[in-house]
Amino acid sequence: MKKIAGILLLFSVACFGQQSQDIEKPIRNLFLGMKNADPELVKSAFTENAVLQTITKDGTVKSDSIPDFVASVSKFTKGDLDERIIIEAIHTDGNLASVFTPYSFYLKGKLSHCGANSFQLVKQNNEWKIQYIIDTRRKDNCKEIK
């Protein structure tokens, strides 16, 4: 009985591990695309009608256009934009995933700001895509992420 339980545990860990990698892929591609100044890779991370928002210092929510964000990436050179994240939590239910990532953002090699990202992803055509990002941004109490 213990052997069967062990095999089931290993199988479930392997399955979730692969699912976790699949969910992380568009997030990793977003930041890789930013770092490589590759707007097409950035664009590929999002659903067609994705939403991008930031919570400002005073608590208001500012919306940004995904096409404008993608276009802005092409204005930088490789290595200028470097957002480093730590994936703290992934929660899933069917075709919905929620991912929370503290981050440090570097502009041209210098720490610019930090905060946290909250991603909502959906699985479409057997592929995870970012539907929604909301983040915080601050310049104080930033910890560098390697």
Span of the ends, CA to CA? 44 Å
From the 3D structure, determine the CATH topology: Nuclear Transport Factor 2, Chain: A
Query: What percent of residues are in strands?
Result: 35-45%
Assigned CATH architecture: Roll
Give a quick account of the main beta sheet: strands, pairing sense, barrel closure. 7 strands, mixed
Radius of gyration (Å)? 17 Å
Describe it for me?
33% of the residues lie in helices and 42% in strands. It is an alpha+beta fold and 146 residues long. It is globular and about 50 Å long. It has a single domain (2-136), classed as Nuclear Transport Factor 2, Chain: A (Roll), CATH 3.10.450.50. Strands 1, 2, 3, 4, 5, 6 and 7 form a seven-stranded mixed β-sheet that branches. A hairpin with a 2-residue loop joins strand 4 and strand 5 (96-107). It contains three helices and seven strands, in the order H-H-E-E-H-E-E-E-E-E.
Brief summary of the model shown:
With 146 residues, the chain is of the alpha+beta class. The chain is built from three helices and seven strands.
